[in-house]
Structures are given as C-alpha cells and as structure tokens.
Amino acid sequence: MSAQLPFQRRAFLLSIIAVLLSITSCTTENRRIKTVSLIGAGASFPAPLYQRWVTDYNQQNPYVEINYQSLGSSVGVQQLSNGTVDFAASDVAITDEQASKIKKGVIALPVTAGAIVLAYNLPNIPTGLKLPRQVYTDIFLGKIKNWNNPQIALANPGVNLPNLPIRVVHRSDGSGTTSVLTQHFSAINPEWKSKVGAGKSIAWFVGIGAKGNEGVTAQIQQVVGAIGYVEYAYAIQNNIAVAALENKSGNFIIPTPESAARTLEKVRLPADNLIAFITDPIDPQSYPIVTYTWLLTYNEYQDPAKAQALKNFINWAVTEGQKSSLELGYIPLSKKVVVKIQSATKKIVE
Length: 350
Hints:
2 domains, 9-stranded mixed beta sheet, 14 helices, ABC_phos-bd_PstS, Phosphate-bind_PstS, transport, phosphate transport
C-alpha cells in the first residue's frame, strides 16, 4: 500500500494540473471572443416583443449585447439620423425625405405587426363595448362627452352605461401609433381629415397626454371613465377592456390576433422598400386598425462585427423570435414576408 501512495498522489496532482490548464485555455479562448454591443431606440408599440427578443437572443448569444430604449417612433428616427444608435424602430417606417438625409442609407424591415386598440376603464363593463365609426371619431373630436350618450347606448342595448364623463387619453410624444390611428380616422371621417388630419404629432381637441404606450396604458388604468389608444399587447398584458370597433363592412370586431391577421393579409409590401399601410380594410371580419412596425437599419456600417451581429439578430427575430409573438399579443409574420425581410437584410454591408 505504501508503495502505491506516491503514484496515487502523482496521478491526483496531474489530474488537477490538467483541469487548471483546461480552465486557462477556455479563459484565454473566451478573451479572444469580442463582445458586440448594439444600441437601438424608437417605437413603444413593439417594445414588449423587442425586450423579449433581446433577452432570449442574449441567452443564446452571450457575446452580443443589445439595448433597446422605448422612446417613440419620432425619437428613434431622429437618433438614427443623428447616428447615435445602431438601429431604430418606427410604426410608420421612414419617409423618403427622412431617408435622404442619412448618408449611410436606410433599410426598413417590417419585423412584427399588431393592432391598435381603444382601451377603456368603465366599472362592470368588460371587453366588447361596441363603438360605431362615427362614435369613436367623435369621442376624439370632443363631440361625444359622456359614456351614456344615446349613440353609444343605441349600439349597446342592454348595457348599463354609466353617467360618467369621457376622459380621452392620447400620446404626448411623437408617435407612430398616433400616426396609424389618425390615418384611419382621416380615412373614415371627413371632419377629422379636414380639422385634424394625420401625423405622429397632432393638435388634439380633447384629452390628456401621456408618453409612450406605457404612459397611455397607465393613465387609462388610473382614471375611471378613460379611453385611449394603445397597442393590443399593452391592453392584454394589463388586463384592460378594449372596444369592438365597427369596420367598413358594418361589423363590430373585437381585436384579436386572428382578426388583426385578417387585416394584415391584405397589406401588399412593395419589393423596393417593404413599406405599406392599410387605413380602412374591407374584409368583413377584419379589425380596422392594424399595422406593421419597422426595424430601421443603416445600409452601411463601419464596424463589420456590428453589421454581422445585427444581421444575425434580425434573421433570428423573424424566424425563431416569431414564436413569442402570439404570447405577447403580436401577429406572427407570414413566410412570404420573412423571405422578403431576409433578402433585404442581405443588403446590410460593412
């Protein structure tokens, strides 16, 4: 036994040395892998999904760090123009005029989509309050001021509408969500079109402002009698009631991923820039306010590592990342749209 001890000790020491050499080798190799950081900012509309993507992608790719700030579409486009971010997000993509000012070029990619809902805070009235087209635009024009208004009552027989003032909540910041909503309002109401129009920032007739989808959601939750517009995911995740809106066919449609997808099927994305909207869908089962939301990248990047990391992330987001869409209240992309995005992503160059 005593003769075997030196050998056993030597074997044990050799095994310890081997483990230490292995750890040192791995540590050295890890140091060779450079962490790539990507910074993005913009639309609050897709922010819950973007944040999930960022977390999930980083778990699978720990050497890629992505930071996305929900600051509104206008801020996102401005920061992309200023060169202070690596990518941006906007619910109205980017105009030709804005794109022409960005020397490195811009690529707009419709990486997800969702519905804009009219969410409300009324005691004992769950999701499904019916709002005719004339009614919901007149509410935001300040012409219908109380919840027991005869026009609302006529559309909702048997519903005990409260004698409460309507408290409109709208965005205070430059917002793609506002632009999509007001494009729809302008398409269905001539008075709205002539007096207010469409845009990311407008002069509201009534209401209180709040920043981001997050801020509007919080205001609706806090104010009894409130109504405001937010992306579907914010209403669902915060358990806020949403209205059934009258569509062009005269049907009252509750926003769901299915009714929103029916609308999206009619949007035809042009091959050159993948930007298109539908302001008033005609499908009888379509929810009327639905939009893509775009991730904006530069055409050219000085840092090859950033360019490749961003391309890899986008390709992951439009394939593997789409699995999180329905859970969070967004509409998964069709295979045809994914193929178009993957083709456009190849135009990102170093």
